[in-house]
Amino acid sequence: MILKTRLFVDQPVGLNQSFELNSDQSHYLLSVLRLSDGNLIGTFDGHNGEWAAELHQISKKRVSITCKEKVRAQQNPPDLWLCFAPIKKARTDFIVEKATELGIGTIIPVQTDFTNSERIKQDRLQAHAREAAEQCGGTYVPEVTAMHKLSDLLKTWPEDRFLLFCDEDQVGTQVDFDALPRGKWAILIGPEGGFSKAERTRLNNMLQAHSVSLGPRILRADTAAVTALTLWHHRLGDW
Ligand code: SAH
Quick one: pLDDT band at residue 107, thresholds 50, 70, 90? Predict the structure, then answer.
């Protein structure tokens, strides 16, 4: 069963589980989509697959839904992190949305030496990830973490996680993606100003890091994120 309308709920879905939806979700179903009692929508909680759920109007402006049947098994993306330096709002939103569509485990905004934006709205980015999962048929919603300083993140970097260091200084070199090992990975994308010399030295000294070029031209950070995710998935991911 393919359900066009899909909503994320932050409570466990399961047979006969009922949820009162919040006012935004209720408004969307009643006033935007003009759905009514008995209509079916898809719902998922990020862990327990997708369920067909029946809509009940409980007041003029509020609806609840009841899970009737599991229509899709849970599908988690590979254990991949995207670490990126936030840029302008719309472009940062784009990165979160596209990473969710392409398949990402965790999204980690990082503050680098030349990061353009020092603050992020974590809740808003998390909402973008939820909406992207609703749109793309995903059953998993990546966590968007708080902003981490790149230097702190590298200090406690897990020994068993490889790092695809997308380095604009590698432009013009050839990368053999086929030679990259399988396992847990993270992708690192820098800000508009690129990485500092100190950061590059630090990263190049990490055993887990593989520095790569993303082609012969310098990409904007949002393009670089989509490109790196595509290349990674093609070789090491679940496509
Ligand atoms: N101001 C920098 C470019 C930064 S582009 C310069 O002129 O050199 C933003 C980020 O995208 C970079 O830090 C890098 O992580 C990634 N990126 C862009 N183009 C790339 C390429 N061709 N190869 C590898 N990484 C790239």
Answer: very high
Q: Which of 77, 95, 196, 83 is nearest to 139 (CA)?
A: 77
Q: Contact 132/100 with Cβ under 8 angstroms?
A: yes
Expressed in angstroms and rounded, the spacing between residue 126 Cα and the centre of ligand 1 is 25
State residue 20's pLDDT score.
96
CATH 3.40.190.150 assigned to domain 80-236? The reply is: no
Domain spanning 6-72: CATH superfamily:
Hypothetical PUA domain-like; domain 1 (2.40.240.20)
Report the percent of the chain where pLDDT is more than 70.
100
Kindly give the distance from the C-alpha atom of residue 43 to the centroid of ligand 1, in angstroms, as a whole number: 38
Ligand 1 lining (C-beta closer than 6 Å) = 166-168, 170-171, 189-190, 192-195, 213-215, 218-219, 221, 224
